[in-house]
Design brief:
This protein is α+β, with helices and mostly antiparallel strands. Helices cover 38% and strands 28% of the residues. Helix 2 packs antiparallel against helix 3.
């Protein structure tokens, strides 16, 4: 399992639409995300800045590959909707604006009881 974090910006004035599109996310998209290996997928918004954090099983590359290969038409439809809202999500090489994991604290199950 690998963790991934990336950021992007949405257009000012689209915050409510963006939030609602994720509150009412397409069930088939949520299923595709899980089937592809993404877990604990979270979006955080501050104004027009969005930060995404998720876990990928078994790896980021494998989750991205499966999503692209198995669900490309669904992702393409979703991206048409999101392209109206998102300003930029990728750098000049086409890569997501990712953050490197520096530190993570797992919950010790024996201590949480």
């Amino acid at each position: 399992m690998e963790r991934m974090c990336f950021k992007f910006s949405i257009r000012a004035g689209t915050e409510e639409i963006y939030d609602k599109s994720h509150t009412d996310i397409w069930p088939e998209l949520a299923e595709a995300i899980l089937d592809s290996g993404y877990r604990n997928y979270s979006l955080f918004r501050r104004g027009t800045e969005i930060i995404c954090s998720c876990e990928c099983v078994p790896s980021i590359a494998e989750a991205q590959k499966k999503m692209k290969e198995k669900y490309s038409s669904l992702v393409d439809r979703w991206n048409v909707e999101m392209d109206k809202l998102i300003i930029e999500m990728h750098d000049e090489t086409g890569s997501l604006f990712t953050y490197d994991l520096i530190w993570h604290l797992d919950v010790d199950e024996s201590r949480s009881q």
